[in-house]
Design a protein that fits this description.
The complex is a heterodimer. Helices cover 38% and strands 20% of the residues of chain A. By secondary structure, chain A is of the alpha/beta class. Chain A is globular. In chain A, 55% of the residues are buried. Chain B contains 13 helices and eight strands. Chain B has an eight-stranded mixed sheet, sandwiched between helices. The chains are: A alpha/beta, B alpha/beta.
């Protein structure tokens, strides 16, 4: 695919790429609090503010809880709001994540994915964002810094779509992406402005059936974040599910439009497959692991092994249909989780993939690999063993160990 | 027009359209509801209100009804000041970018004592330190009333609540009320004041002064709760007066850290004989009933002593003898 717009190559670490994307997205309010490995994002953005390079109100809050709250409040006042966090910071935001999605505030947040305490660990895994998977946020996971940059830009366009109006979190693996310098193709500010556009505030109907902008507007007073009890609460929640469903098409659409202009496409926006068409065995993963996995697959393919990969780019809304169709010819699947669901018989991605395959008349074998917790390195050699295991499963037609821990000291 | 110049009559106030409308579900005799109505009479133009979870939030916004004729936001219990931070930041930049038409929009954050003394204190302290332009209004009914009368950092010494009951071993709350308004003065704020709804003109004037400050302002308003205080609903405003007259809750202002007593309290400093004993205020309130038992006589004396000491300390801060 060719780019229809001018792009400039920059050497950026993942965090820098995210900050640069936020800068170009004409964000009105950034409310944030620093935490490793997200710090570079807020530091970089502070620099833009200090140098007068952005027209953004930067609120350096006293906690992540207030960072999320101020982002939400700015968003319902009509501003485009951005924040970023990781690990404990995201956990502290937990309460407000639900309020943000419940208020239908399309805040965009970057997560430099990191392990949760205890024991304290600052390195990358998906425990933080996976613990928030039911908070009503759209969740995307980037494979590299380029995708982190592109996804932040796309996230505003997705979340602010008036048929969606949901907050979006974009995950980038802590240190592996956040602190690693990569070549990133960047757009002009003008292109990004035009691609996202100014935030549109939809009209809603008042009790008098008059149209009123869905924001805090002194000319059209609206009560936002009310108490809704047994008689109305349920409908609010059902509407959020509808918005998630709408997001599926919007994410695909934004991915296509973006690809058309930039020459970069992330699968269909929801999932990306790699050498899956004729694959007999496949792995499913999220985030930066996919990059290593692609190399492993190339090696396996060179020796005649029909191996493939499905990367889940969008975890919420969960791309059920796309997973079913991507795996239709696959006979054995290994789902990789960089987080745990203690006592839950496997990790969250494993649960959900198995769940969508349940109704199929013929199903592949599905096994789980939990790996990389607390930033534990996962080598290509280790990843290769997954495919060797899958081959063994096909050969014996039995699964001896459905849940395995990769690279764990036994 | 500054608040000093802003003269208003009862008629002006009566004629001003209500922004906190009737039909809310507050209990009979609820002083916080009266406080909110008065507060909204002091607005000077477009105003956005944000509230912490609490009595006044739940009684005024039960979907699909609302008592708010002004834009209003609730997000959570501990977030009133963080809400105000986000709203104010958004208004500032949207105005700069020409995306809102109003010349200025005032922001009022409202919270009860739980949402201010306790769970919301961090967000409040942070927002004040950052200097957001908003008025934080604390309506202090001295316990978590919305959840059924549990003690807060604002509950006074000796009061019985459901989490500091007056039992056989412990006679109500042992700890003292946190001097929150003083703590806010220590944040180097331009305007901090205390007010009581009995002195409604004083209250309205202070709200207006707080709004006129360019930066954060803090107003601590005393607000009796007949349900939580086990007091006669008809006497909430009377207790608002007695609290001032006994110096349990003096009314004062601190402008750039300079304390001065407001008239109702100043009168007592000039004529100390008019200062009433605390028992006048405590009696009749069910939460203090146990203090009048013979075995708790010392506790009652202690409350009088502490009230006197705090009053003397305040007089000193106001450079009064």
């Amino acid at each position: 695919m060719l780019s229809k717009v001018d792009q400039k190559m920059m050497a950026l670490a993942g965090d820098q790429a995210v900050a640069y994307a936020a800068k170009q997205s004409d964000v009105d309010v950034v409310a944030a609090y620093p935490i490793t490995p997200q710090t570079i994002i807020v530091e970089k953005f502070s620099e833009y503010v200090a140098n007068g390079e952005v027209e953004t109100e930067f609120v350096c809050t006293e906690s992540e809880h207030s960072a999320m709250t101020a982002s939400l409040a700015a968003s319902v006042t009509g501003a485009r709001a951005f924040t970023a966090t990781a690990s404990a910071g995201l956990a502290l935001m937990h309460e407000m994540l639900f309020v943000t999605s419940g208020c239908r505030a399309p805040v965009v947040m970057a997560i430099a994915n990191r392990a949760l305490s205890a024991p304290l660990n600052i390195h990358g895994d998906h425990s933080d964002s996976m613990a928030q998977r039911d908070s009503g946020w759209i969740q995307m996971y980037a494979e590299n810094s380029q995708e982190a940059y592109d996804s932040i830009i796309q996230a505003f366009k997705i979340g602010e779509n008036t048929n969606v109006l949901l907050p979006v979190m974009v995950g980038l693996d802590g240190f592996t992406l956040s602190h690693t310098l990569e070549n990133v193709l960047t757009f002009s500010d003008e292109f990004v402005h035009e691609f996202i556009g100014t935030r549109k505030i939809p009209d809603v109907l008042t009790h008098e059936a008059k149209k009123s902008p869905f924001k805090l507007d002194p000319k059209n007073p609206m009560t936002m974040g009310p108490i809704a009890l047994q008689n109305y609460y349920f409908e609010f929640k059902r509407q959020q599910e509808e918005a998630m469903k709408n997001a599926i098409e919007i994410i695909k659409d934004v991915n296509n439009k973006f690809a058309d202009l930039s020459g970069r496409k992330y699968g269909n926006g929801l999932v990306e497959d790699y050498k899956l068409d004729d694959a007999e065995i496949a792995a499913i993963c999220l985030g930066s692991t996919a990059g290593t996995m692609k190399t492993v697959i190339d090696e396996l393919r060179a020796t005649g092994t029909k191996a493939g990969l499905l990367r889940i780019r969008t975890f919420r809304p969960f791309p059920s249909e796309d997973i079913i169709s991507a795996l239709k010819n696959v006979k054995a699947v290994a789902v990789m989780d960089k987080s745990m669901s203690f006592g839950g018989n496997g990790g969250p991605a494993y649960h959900e993939v198995r769940h969508v395959l349940y109704d199929l008349p013929s199903k592949p074998f599905v096994v789980n690999y939990i790996y990389g917790l607390g930033g534990r390195d996962t080598s290509p050699v280790q990843l290769k063993t997954i495919y060797i295991d899958l081959q063994q499963i096909l050969k014996t037609q039995t699964v001896k160990e459905p849940i395995k821990y990769l690279g764990l000291r036994q | 027009m500054t608040a000093q110049e802003w003269k208003f009559t009862s008629k002006d106030i009566a004629n001003k359209p209500e922004l906190f409308l009737s039909g809310h579900r507050a209990c009979a005799g609820c002083a916080p509801a009266t406080v909110l109505r008065l507060v909204m009479k002091a607005t000077r133009g477009p105003t956005i209100v944000t509230e912490a979870t609490g009595c006044m939030e739940v009684v005024s916004s039960i979907y699909p009804y609302t008592s708010w004729a002004t834009p209003w936001l609730h997000t959570a219990f501990e977030t009133a000041a963080a809400n105000a931070s986000g709203i104010e930041a958004a208004l500032k930049i949207l105005k700069k970018k020409g995306r809102i038409s109003q010349e200025h929009v005032d922001v009022i954050a409202i919270a009860g004592d739980g949402g201010t003394f306790d769970i919301g204190f961090q967000a409040l302290s942070g927002a004040v330190e950052r200097g957001h332009d908003f008025l934080f209004l604390l309506y202090d009914n001295e316990a978590y009333m919305n959840t059924g009368i549990q003690r807060s950092g604002g509950t006074p010494h000796g009061a019985a609540t459901t989490t500091s009951p007056a039992g056989r071993a412990i006679p109500g709350k042992l700890e003292y009320k946190k001097p929150l308004a003083d703590i806010m003065v220590a944040h180097n704020m331009e305007y901090v004041a205390t007010a009581s709804p009995y002195y409604w003109k004083d209250l309205i004037t202070k709200v207006r002064k707080g709004l006129e400050v360019e930066g954060p302002a803090f107003l601590h308003v005393f607000a009796p709760c007949p349900r939580g205080w086990r007091s006669n609903p008809a006497k909430s405003i009377e207790y608002s007066k007695l609290a001032v007259e006994t110096c349990i809750f003096p009314v004062w202002e601190a402008v750039n850290g300079e304390y001065s007593l407001s008239i109702p309290s100043k009168v007592l400093s000039l004529a100390p004989q008019r200062k009433k004993p605390v028992s006048e205020y405590l009696k009749g309130q069910g939460r203090f009933r146990h203090l009048f038992r013979p075995e708790n006589k010392k506790l009652l004396e202690e409350i009088q002593n502490i009230t006197d000491k705090r009053w003397q300390k305040l007089l000193k801060k106001c450079n009064l003898p």
